[in-house]
Structure prediction request, 510 residues.
Amino acid sequence: MLKRALKVTAITLLIALGAAGVLYLAGVRVLLDGGARPYITRITPPSAHADALARHREAQRAQPLTDTAVPSDIASAEGNDASAQGGMDASETAADETSAGESPAATTSADAADTAVAARAALDWPSFRGAQRDGHYRGAVRVDWPAGGLTPLWKQPVGGGYASFAVAGGRAYTIEQRGPEEVVAAYDVATGRELWTHGWTALFSEILGGDGPRATPTYHDGRVFALGGTGELRALDARDGRLLWRTNILEDARAPAREWGVSGSPLIVDDTVVVTPGGPDGRSVVAYSIDGGRMAWSALDDQTSYASAMLVTLGGVRQILAFSQSRMVAITPVEGRVLWEYPWVTDPRINASQPVLLGDDRVFVSTGYGKGAAVIELTRTDDEDAPSFTVREVWRNIRMKNQFSTSIAHEGYLYGLDGPILACIDAATGDLKWKGGRYGYGQIMLTNGHLIVTTEGGDIALVRATPERHTEIARFSVFNARTWNHPVIADGILLVRNLAEMAAFDLRVR
Prediction:
């Protein structure tokens, strides 16, 4: 009897293992959502996805180029290069034009062109969560979305990873995992056409979050600064992807590898690129020169977490705001002197959201893992040569827990994902105004008094940013896979992506 029972058990186990093997080969996986809850889904194996992506791009290249205008900032850079190659520098050209008698009309035309370039640049999205890293798009867009959703301008496969886009002059830049390589890619926003790629051999992989780079590239003055999941930092020419310089921030700082990958987006501060490798001996925050990649300065000994550094002005003092494993801390540019700090530790020592500025003297901070949120108030000392700040906690509660998204400040209220549910709280008091709408562990941004929410499951929702009640105007499906990447709007075009696909939607006001 026992022998027969053991035989039946063995056969059952073999059948179960065989079925599991078949399901695995078919791409069925057990994954975790942003709250670490398991769910069953089907994925395309990375090698098969890389092959499909390569076939798509090959077919795309075979199609004729559309007649699209060269982005104004890139065209200007190319014009400067052309005149330099012709043996005449900018000052010589200006002198010749002046001696020839430049007309007032020509000057007016040039001023108008400069104004147009500046206006367009204001509608760009050059860094993680925008130029100010606050998740606000300040241009006009449509908010009269049809209930059935928007039709994409284009939709296509993309490499793996959780980076978002940096957008400037009609081009979108992101970093992807394509097989064994991390690849920085430039796309034409209007068509989705791949314009250039630059890759290197590197693969960050972990079983819970998945493969691929995490940090969003940064665009600045004709260059793209991209940071891979294993610490590879590269400066590229935005026109063609040509390598300008490279280094590895973890190796330079003698810093340990991050459990969930290097995630902080590069920050431009004057003529330096600031990153947070989290190394010892004063190399937690490191700045490299934009020209050449030489280490310019470093500061602090904190172990880094997963937030991106921010350049802010508080109390009239320009400062770099960093969020480490143990504290939120502000330092001065160049010398890295500590201006103020506020201890903040979660149980798994993960701080992945961004601090949110509330005027000139208050900062909001929120994390998940049961930690909650707080607002602090900063009071500046009177020392003009070496100012510092005292910190007062205004309120603290657990009504907003941003796991790896960041709340949005709008007209005295904070809107964010409290775990998987959207919520609104009063920024002055921390009082909950409403909580509603299950979006999973997605991302949010603000435009024209409305929140755009990308859900963990791949939907896009439009929600009114009002403290009265949760009002969802529209919600529709875009992707069928885990979506943790931050949405972007540039020049009225909404860009979204996840581990497998990317898409664009036209929100321009007609």
